[in-house]
Amino acid sequence: MAAEVRVVRLDALPAAEIAALSRAALDRPLGGAAEVIVAVPADEAVVLGAFQRASELDEALNHTSTTRRGSGGAEARVGPGSVWMQLALARPDALVPCPPSRLLNRYVRPLLGAITKAGALARYFDRDWISARRSPVASVSFAHDTKSGRALVEAIVAVDTPFAVRDRPSFMGREPLSLRALGVARATGEVADAVIDAYASAYGPAERSREIPSHAGAIDLHREPPWAAIREEPIGVVGAGRDAEGVLRVGGELMVSRDVLADLERVIAESPHDPAAIERAIDALSGERVALLGIRSLQSIRDVIFEALELPRS
User: Which of 80, 104, 158, 202 holds its CA 20 to 30 A away from the CA of 281?
Assistant: First the structure.
């Protein structure tokens, strides 16, 4: 039987290179239904979500090396004490029945088993983190494209390197901790092996590899001006503002299908004085085939766009 899943175990890879693998995950060819990368970074870095701007956390960065991943959500710290998992999928239901809106719920299950096997009972409550003993111990995030169907589920597990850069509304007052701080006496490599084994065995035959897949090129994070307008949502900041080239972008700590967000930005660029056209593009974010997490109401997105464009709001 042909392997549906290719699993790739990587050690001591620069964080920027692992992030580049993440940014390429929706576009590079897949040999089967899915590809799992489990990596241990060689160095420390702060990894921004796909739609964040570094200006959101200038003080928290404190000259730390910064890069960007392909999935949405908030920043996470990585280092030699982190296990970084990336599950690239040909489509959301490539391995199990799964609508786009349930990507995290369906595909973090092997990860929960691996963390539990390491020594801390892990649970997931439909947020952007995994809990063990009531503390956030791992960040989880997704990327998705409705046109191609491709998806990415990503996790950063704090084995010895804490993943949280700052307190966030999403944590609901709970203190993020590493597995080591919870008393789990497992080496980072052991936890990485448990994660790779969990995903390799969860979905049928798996092909194992240590070959580094193709990835995206370098990026410049520090040319981005601050958001012109922001709102606070359960997941954190949602913002709108022009980039260094003057194009109005929408982003922050939300997770959303990248092409639907890009379509919204295109409508804004083409029809900046047409509120009705912009409203229709915003409404498309609630479509059945769209993955969206962290937004209570599309009103927040509408508000930041109209404020950034200085359009009247009803």
Answer: 104
